[in-house]
Backbone:
């Protein structure tokens, strides 16, 4: 038996897929701070490590070029572990440096995540019994 796929279903799946992919795209880079010596850009990017976007690099390059300097990437960090917001900083300097080492370093993903929970174990327990009731206190 041959089953033909409905083009309507395929179109619906394509639209839904595009919607979910767009939700994961980085937000536009917004200037957080800027001076003759530096610029910081803030945006949301959905990844487990800082994500340097081409837009952020372009904005930093154009900003530093206004002062006749090169934009050298200094790194990025998450604003909070509860959001996808990141801040990326560039120094405006007279000599261009190789940004690839910093970018590669912060793009490394750990092989495993270790979550340690603190366990408080009582060192001493005292119980008093009165009839059918026991009251215990642990320290």
Residues:
């Amino acid at each position: 038996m041959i089953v033909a796929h409905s083009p309507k279903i395929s179109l619906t799946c394509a639209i839904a897929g595009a919607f979910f992919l767009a939700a994961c795209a980085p937000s536009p880079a917004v200037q957080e701070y800027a001076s003759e010596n530096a610029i910081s850009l803030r945006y949301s990017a959905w990844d487990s490590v800082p994500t340097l976007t081409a837009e952020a690099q372009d904005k930093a390059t154009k900003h530093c070029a206004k002062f006749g300097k090169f934009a050298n990437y200094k790194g990025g960090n998450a604003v909070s572990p509860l959001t996808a917001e990141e801040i990326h900083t560039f120094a405006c300097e007279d000599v261009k440096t190789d940004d690839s080492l910093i970018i590669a370093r912060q793009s490394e993903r750990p092989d495993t995540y270790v979550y340690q929970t603190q366990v408080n174990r009582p060192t001493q327990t005292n119980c008093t019994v009165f009839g059918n009731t026991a009251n215990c206190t642990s320290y």
About this structure: Confidence is low (pLDDT under 50) at residues 1-22.
